[in-house]
Please model this.
Amino acid sequence: MQTNHKQQAMLPDSEIIRQILDGATGLFRLLVNRHANEVMRIVGRIVPVQADAEDVMQEAFVAAYQQLAEYDARQAGFRTWLLGIACHKALKQAKNASLFPHETIDREEMENLPDADVDHLLDDTLPDRLALLEQAVTLLSPNDRLLLSLYYHDNRKLKEIALIMGCTDSYLRSRLQWIRKYLCHTIYTLERK
Amino acid sequence: MKTNDRHEDTALRRVMEQQAQQAGKMQLPEDFADRVMNRIARQANGETVSTPSPAPARLTHLRKVAAILIAGIFISGLAFATWKLSNGHSQQTAIYEKAAQADSAVTFSNVRLDSILHRVSRHYDRRVRFQNEQLREWRFQIVWEPAKPLADFVSVLNEFDGLHVSDREKLIIVEATKK
Model:
């Protein structure tokens, strides 16, 4: 019996999913144990309150269980698919809780910022500039913060982030450019204050 | 500055790393998997476990194993049980299964006998036959230890008045006994 348990623990996600769909529903526990920490790592960045993050996690796993038959391994790995569900729920929670402030910006001024200035500013690691950048990041929407986190911290490819966030990678590419300019514009604005 | 079609953005990268590290301090409770499995069970609304959006062809089969919720759990110990006969189908008490710890005994709380045996039989690779259909609706508060032999669980069930369970040739037979 112990051997059987060990063998199950070594099964690839795809095989576990096949067995769950064939009726061995208890095996879903293996998937929870296997992926919960990674999902929590990402959800925690969007929902900073531990209890809320746990709630989101539970909802995400229950939803994943219920939608398991819809999972298509050809489109994405199970973890990526699961992260998509979890991030969607976490972003919804973050928006409901109004965890981010809304700022009005001068779009024209922002759009006209030279790319060289943006590159320079986002490379600047002087403490004062870093503090302003940190402040600017907090003004972003949860979606944008998640994008930055997945892109800069996790070094994920835009194609994978697109699967997680439920959009196209070309949109994310242009969104990244917008965010970079927004951050620089905000830093300049904060410096002027 | 760009490397490999990716902006370096050293400062921004550092800020995002700091934020991610703060979030990384969150720890999931040890029984998180139990909570998820219990929540799935509670949503089942009755004696069957909700299934992962099964295709119609799978539905019948899945119902047969609907009581299976938690994977094989392997810690030894003694089983104990109390039982409660409910008012049958007039009550829609949801299945609530709780494993005290991951990989430990499974507690069935006020769960129909047929659901319990579906799950147990799956674990031991048995089929179940009810000689008396009414016995399906009996509800039990009982602890099952999957690491123990089926005979142990059968003997616990046989402690209850009015019920006789036997394990014969890959078949769990459930009968009523005269009081």
Chain A has two domains: 2-96, 107-192. Chain A touches chain B through 58 residues (CB under 8 Å). Residues 104 and 186 of chain A are 10 Å apart (CA to CA).
